[in-house]
Specification:
six-stranded antiparallel β-sheet, 633 residues, globular, mainly beta
């Protein structure tokens, strides 16, 4: 509550989420552990850091409890946020979150100040809003709680393009100007000409026509064209070049393998790893060591050197000029083993990582980087490759934009071109709501009053009895599939209000809920391995201004597992304020008053359906399932 008041915070300040961690000091703070960074991993809760990686603890040899299956830390996030004030926060008899010798409490709040300092009446009246806010003038909530991107936020945008030689573009380029820009971006040589046509002989959209080694950029506006990307050509030769901390050139031919040209420092090792954006992808890599040390083929490990692979390379040339060394290698397209990368002529882009060392022998890198090499048809072939919109990257106020919208069937967001997926259309949500950021526009005055809020937590506990209490690891899934949030688009003008409903779905398996092959003691996100799950708790996370329902089905049987329909507030009474909702969870147990827990194989297919009121648009909506259960062997 706000200091000096009595339970009025719910009408003047948005508590979006409250998450806490309770942990054992001796383990988490270093006596028996070390901190490990995994920059590739999603945080277990996903929504508040997708794609940003995470740190986790790992037991060291001196930990006397390293084989203990009781966690040293537990994460409490179920039923978090203002929408869950009236919800039951607990588990049925016999189930709990176990913590070994807890000593510390850590809070992760997310609060948004929506207090209108100029209004002292009863009820709620929104204060000033940035121009991008989507809430109506008479709303019983503040548009600030959806974190609209104001004019204070500065975007830096880079558009990514990719080529395709079969099928159709997932996202088609629609303007000639963008087509010509994209063609230059993906072609190893600048197109000799640009033109706009309407033809049934080429794929619809942006086309890079390669003939006799020359390239032409063509914008084909004929939507009726049924010609696939590549024009049905049998592509026999592709090539491309890209630079990171190592310069890489690839030349692929179906009858003679791949020529790999790498340029790096003359006095130290350098290398590239294929089909990867970070070391934890554990890619097939080529390491060129300095001096007379051998060239290595390596399967990298997760932040370790990995292991050597059998040699499949032949040296064509090895030249040193000044401080640069250029080496040209040959190998077959097909990898010698499953751990060797296989090059494919149908591939039009390959992500790669690169690194350089400070010594001749392969060791810890001095510098590293990541890039993408685009491969275009070469030689005397005539091929009509599509140039596709490959999305965008960039930053907001210097913070990298890393939304990852997944494809069907796990997410609908890419199919519907949800604005949350692309920095070019991103207009509000978590990425515009970082710590101490003001949400008003640059020309709006920031209220001078600083307010203080107090938070109170009650935690019930008892000593562990292995005969009567079972631990509940966290099981988590986002209907928006790792994007962490999504936009609810406003329904079309003239749509009857009862039909203004926006729906997203996700199809996944029980196995997708598990974080396997990890230490339950070390990693707060670890669920452990198993063949089935006994579900005890399920709660859908969504927001008051728009949420209508969340349903979870067993797709294999069609049975409804959990249905959540928010209870709408009706007046100004505490815990029943208009504009707020309550979302009671689904709970199963062994007691007579509860339904029996559903036990599902890890191969069971689940369906999540989320419905929202779309009378008005909304930023930053969420549709995650926060669950707890017993992972059975």
């Amino acid at each position: 509550m706000r200091r000096g008041t009595a339970m009025e915070c719910c009408s003047i300040q948005k508590t979006h989420a409250m998450m806490i961690t309770i942990f054992s000091q001796a383990f988490v703070l270093g006596k028996y552990s070390e901190m490990i960074e995994d920059p590739a991993a999603y945080p277990s809760h996903g929504a508040y850091g997708a794609g940003k990686g995470r740190w986790y603890t790992k037991a060291i040899d001196s930990d006397p409890f390293q084989n203990l299956t009781i966690p040293a830390a537990q994460y409490f996030s179920e039923g978090n946020g203002g929408e869950y004030r009236k919800s039951y926060h607990g588990y049925p008899k016999g189930y709990a979150q176990l913590i070994h010798s807890p000593t510390h409490f850590q809070l992760q709040p997310m609060q948004i100040d929506t207090h209108n300092r100029d209004y002292n009446g009863t009820g709620f009246k929104p204060g000033p809003l940035p121009r991008t806010a989507q809430s109506p003038p008479d709303a019983d909530y503040s548009g600030l709680l959806e974190c609209p991107c104001s004019t204070r936020r500065k975007k830096v945008i880079k558009v990514n393009y990719e080529t395709l030689n079969s099928g159709t573009c997932p996202v088609t380029i629609s303007s000639a100007e963008e087509c010509f820009e994209g063609a230059i971006s993906v072609s190893k040589t600048p197109p000799v000409s640009n033109s706009t046509i309407s033809s049934l002989d080429f794929p619809f959209g942006c086309v890079l026509l390669t003939a006799g080694g020359n390239a032409k950029a063509i914008m084909n506006t004929q939507k009726a064209s049924e010609v696939a990307c590549g024009g049905g050509s049998n592509i026999t030769h592709t090539s491309g070049a890209a630079a990171s901390v190592v310069t890489l050139h690839l030349d692929l031919q179906d009858d003679s393998g791949v020529i790999i040209t790498m340029q790096g420092p003359a006095n130290a090792w350098f290398g590239v790893g294929f089909n990867a954006q970070q070391m934890s992808d554990e890619p097939y890599s080529i390491i060129v060591q300095g001096g007379r040390l051998p060239i290595m083929e390596v399967k990298l490990g997760d932040h370790d050197p990995g292991h050597n692979l059998s040699n499949s390379l032949k040296v064509i040339s090895d030249k040193t000029e000044g401080s640069n060394r250029t080496i040209q290698l040959w190998r077959p397209l097909k990898g010698a083993t499953a751990e060797h990368y296989t090059f494919d002529l149908s591939t039009t882009a390959i992500e790669f990582i690169a690194a350089v060392g400070s010594s001749p022998g392969f060791a810890y890198h001095k510098d590293k980087g990541a890039s993408v090499i685009h491969l275009s048809p070469s030689g005397n072939q005539t091929v009509a490759s599509c140039v596709c919109d490959g999305g965008s990257s960039g930053s907001i106020d210097g913070i990298p934009f890393r939304k990852r919208c997944g494809p069907e069937p796990k997410s609908d967001l890419l199919k519907e071109h949800n604005r949350i997926c692309d920095i070019r259309t991103y207009s509000g949500g978590l990425e515009c709501c970082h710590h101490q950021w003001f949400l008003l526009d640059a020309d709006q005055e920031i209220p001078p009053q600083v307010e203080e809020y107090h938070l109170k937590f009650r935690i019930w506990f008892k000593d562990y009895d292995p005969n009567t209490i079972v631990n509940l690891p966290r099981l988590y899934w986002q209907t928006e599939n790792a994007a962490g949030e999504y936009d609810v688009p406003k329904c079309d003008p003239g749509t009857p209000s009862n039909e203004c409903v926006h729906t997203i779905t996700s199809r996944f398996t029980v196995n997708d809920l598990l974080n396997r092959d990890c230490s339950i003691r070390s990693d707060v996100a670890c669920s452990g391995n198993g063949t089935s799950v006994k579900f005890i708790y399920a709660g859908g996370h969504c927001h008051a201004a728009t949420c209508l329902s969340m349903d979870l089905y067993n797709m294999d049987t069609g049975k409804l597992i959990c249905s959540q329909t928010p209870i709408q507030g009706q007046n100004t009474e505490v815990f029943d304020e208009k504009g707020y909702i309550a979302i009671p969870p689904c709970i199963w147990g062994d007691e007579d008053e509860l339904e029996d827990p559903p036990v599902l194989s890890v191969n069971t297919t689940l369906l999540s359906i989320k419905r929202c009121n779309s009378t008005y648009g909304h930023y930053g909506e969420m549709a995650s399932w926060q669950m707890r259960g017993v992972v059975l062997p």
